[in-house]
Amino acid sequence: MNKSRGKPGQKYQNREAYKFDKWRTDPKAKMLAAMQVINCCPKCTQVIEWKIQFGKYKTLTRPATCLDCKEKAVKYAYHTRCIPCVEKSKRCSKCGDSQSEFVNLPPPSDSELAKKDAEFKSELKRLPERKRRTLLRYMEKLKLDSENPENENQEAIKDKLQEYTEKYAKNDFEFDEFDDERSDVSDDSDNEDLDD
Length: 196
Ligand SMILES: [Zn+2]
Ligand SMILES: [Zn+2]
Prior knowledge:
binds zinc ion; two-stranded antiparallel sheet; mainly alpha; globular
């Protein structure tokens, strides 16, 4: 299973950063490989990235308590503040520093997503009902998958969702493409909340 074994004629080994999980294929390793450290100052981003790179990163088994709001709302290991509190205070999620800029920001906020969602729904109403239901279910499934921070394919799913959303927003979306995805989508006939 080792794909990275050097070719016989290869003279020089590629000098890559050490990756602890090169040989691992389990979901956690994949999730970590795709993970981005968000809402942290450069120093803390580096510390957490180091943990990820060297296999020292321990995922949370349940949400941790946020130092600011005291809710059990911290979803990421080593963070001490939840995402909403960080958005308010602009402090580093880990050390609380308010002077440095964050290296990586989180994906779009709920309000941005809600706006996109509303636009999307108004477009959906113009579609034939059957296509509409199928698409909506499929998108919903993608959305749920993409919101799970420990999902091994989270980034790929987000990309896919984004791709569909953009494609669709352009209004030249080819719905026949979804016929191939049918097996993923149960097409039972409940139709709640689509019609006013
Ligand atoms: Zn909080
Ligand atoms: Zn920090």
